[in-house]
């Protein structure tokens, strides 16, 4: 059986990381991407007075929001959209939460948040799942906004409640049984968003009971989507697409992403959406897989 490649350090010349074997020798295809899913601080700055624009700061708690946020941004608690066990809120609960931060059916939602953009990516997935149409990530997050010397506020934003109709899209989510059934499917590629040491099994990761990865998965750590650890702008579409090409994703119909947690996986979900790939999220992720029995194998 072909061993899946650890892609955290592949394509060294493209990504500026240490070298490792490369899966494909042919040239990378020209990527396609959806530029509407990413907004620069400059563009957002010009839209802050637009009544359709809703800016949302996503965090585990209010500490970072209270310390300074984009003027007018509403606070969204991670716990309100992510249970951490693969269980998504029902439609009524999602409507209440999302309307509570001012989101309506016709809103142009801009998301940023804590944990190097992972929480904003989680909210992006939730809006996809809810059937909302116009939402984007702030490129570089609050860090880039501050670096550009743009204003921040410590005053809690107030605003009207939105009017939203949630239309759940369950086809975006898969569970362990689906992954197990399709992990050898030639039309599906599994991509693991964890750091290389967790993918290899050298370090289990918090909550993981069996170290390693799902057999057949490729590793594209979520953090490699960014320019650097401190510059959280998204890499160019060409570089992002090269990662997916190395994982044979260009030859597959469906990309399935997972991480240690759903938040970690959501960043790669966003990248796949940005690259206009058909993507699904194993929401319960590897923490769930590792706790299952021998019928759900782990490879190291």
TrEMBL record:
The keyword Transit peptide does not apply. Its EC number is 2.8.1.1, 2.8.1.2. It is an enzyme of class 2 (transferase). Residues 1-23 form the signal peptide. CDD domains: TST_Repeat_1. This is Thiosulfate/3-mercaptopyruvate sulfurtransferase. It holds the Pfam family Rhodanese. The keyword Repeat applies.
């Amino acid at each position: 059986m072909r061993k899946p490649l650890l892609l955290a350090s592949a394509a060294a010349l493209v990504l500026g990381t240490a070298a490792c074997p490369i899966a494909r020798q042919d040239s990378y295809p020209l990527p396609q991407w959806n530029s509407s899913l990413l907004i620069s601080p400059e563009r957002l700055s010009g839209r802050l007075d637009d009544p359709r624009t809703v800016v949302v700061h996503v965090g585990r708690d209010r500490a970072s929001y209270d310390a300074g946020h984009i003027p007018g941004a509403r606070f969204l608690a991670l716990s309100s959209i992510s249970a951490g066990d693969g269980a998504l809120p029902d439609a009524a609960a999602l409507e209440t939460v999302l309307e509570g931060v001012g989101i309506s059916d016709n809103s142009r939602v801009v998301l940023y948040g804590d944990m190097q953009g992972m929480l904003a990516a989680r909210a992006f997935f939730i809006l996809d799942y809810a059937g909302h149409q116009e939402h984007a990530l702030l490129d570089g997050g609050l860090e880039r906004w501050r670096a550009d010397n743009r204003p921040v506020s410590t005053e809690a934003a107030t605003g009207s409640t939105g009017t939203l109709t949630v239309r759940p899209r369950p086809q975006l989510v898969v569970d362990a049984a689906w992954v197990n059934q399709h992990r050898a499917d030639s039309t599906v590629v599994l991509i693991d968003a964890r750091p290389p040491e967790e993918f290899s099994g050298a370090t289990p990761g918090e909550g993981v009971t069996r170290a390693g990865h799902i057999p057949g998965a490729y590793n594209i750590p979520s953090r490699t989507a960014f320019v650097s650890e401190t510059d959280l702008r998204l890499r160019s579409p060409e570089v992002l697409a090269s990662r997916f090409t190395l994982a044979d994703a260009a030859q597959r119909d469906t990309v399935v992403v997972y991480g240690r947690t759903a938040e970690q996986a959501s960043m790669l979900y966003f990248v796949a959406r940005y690259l206009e790939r058909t993507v699904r999220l194993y929401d319960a992720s590897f923490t769930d897989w590792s706790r299952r029995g021998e019928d759900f194998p782990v490879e190291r």
